[in-house]
Amino acid sequence: MAQRNYMSVSFAALSQNEAFARVAVASFISQLDVSVEEMEEIKTVVSEAVTNSIIHGYDENPEGIVRITVKIEDNVVELIVEDEGKGIEDVDQAMQPLYTSKPELERSGMGFTIMENFMDSLEVATAVGKGTTVRLTKSLSFAKALQN
């Protein structure tokens, strides 16, 4: 029988909470025998997705709320990052390497590219004025759930 587990956390759309999000997800995933490389990739993806929500979704408005849900089933991790920010007008354009809607902030425009490269799948659901949901999955190569 497949082992399923999940966690969910919400926090204010403040840049300093990006580190909290990384640690929360890493702590939850650490119940699996994850390689150091896979853990670093997931933490990087969390940083990119959360930063996108804070900077682009909410324009750094601390009234916004970012939600992260992580689901584990066998060796597959599903990561969902949601906001109720301004949404993405053109997802295809936003996903182009080096594209950024905030060049004045010296953003690299590589967030979605990094997410695509480090994860097995990336889905973006967005509605202008209503927010964005980024859903990512990764099959962990060496993960085995710890037996209790």
UniProtKB/TrEMBL annotation:
<dbReference type="GO" id="GO:0005524">
    <property type="term" value="F:ATP binding"/>
</dbReference>
<keyword id="KW-0067">ATP-binding</keyword>
<protein>
    <recommendedName>
        <fullName>Anti-sigma F factor</fullName>
        <ecNumber>2.7.11.1</ecNumber>
    </recommendedName>
</protein>
<comment type="similarity">
    <text>Belongs to the anti-sigma-factor family.</text>
</comment>
<keyword id="KW-0749">Sporulation</keyword>
<comment type="function">
    <text>Binds to sigma F and blocks its ability to form an RNA polymerase holoenzyme (E-sigma F). Phosphorylates SpoIIAA on a serine residue. This phosphorylation may enable SpoIIAA to act as an anti-anti-sigma factor that counteracts SpoIIAB and thus releases sigma F from inhibition.</text>
</comment>
<dbReference type="GO" id="GO:0030436">
    <property type="term" value="P:asexual sporulation"/>
</dbReference>
<dbReference type="Pfam" id="PF13581">
    <property type="entry name" value="HATPase_c_2"/>
</dbReference>
<dbReference type="InterPro" id="IPR036890">
    <property type="entry name" value="HATPase_C_sf"/>
</dbReference>
<feature type="domain" description="Histidine kinase/HSP90-like ATPase">
    <location>
        <begin position="37"/>
        <end position="142"/>
    </location>
</feature>
<keyword id="KW-0418">Kinase</keyword>
<dbReference type="GO" id="GO:0016989">
    <property type="term" value="F:sigma factor antagonist activity"/>
</dbReference>
<dbReference type="GO" id="GO:0030435">
    <property type="term" value="P:sporulation resulting in formation of a cellular spore"/>
</dbReference>
<dbReference type="GO" id="GO:0042174">
    <property type="term" value="P:negative regulation of sporulation resulting in formation of a cellular spore"/>
</dbReference>
<keyword id="KW-0808">Transferase</keyword>
<dbReference type="InterPro" id="IPR010194">
    <property type="entry name" value="Anti-sigma_F"/>
</dbReference>
<keyword id="KW-0547">Nucleotide-binding</keyword>
<dbReference type="GO" id="GO:0004674">
    <property type="term" value="F:protein serine/threonine kinase activity"/>
</dbReference>
<keyword id="KW-0723">Serine/threonine-protein kinase</keyword>
<dbReference type="InterPro" id="IPR003594">
    <property type="entry name" value="HATPase_dom"/>
</dbReference>
<dbReference type="InterPro" id="IPR050267">
    <property type="entry name" value="Anti-sigma-factor_SerPK"/>
</dbReference>
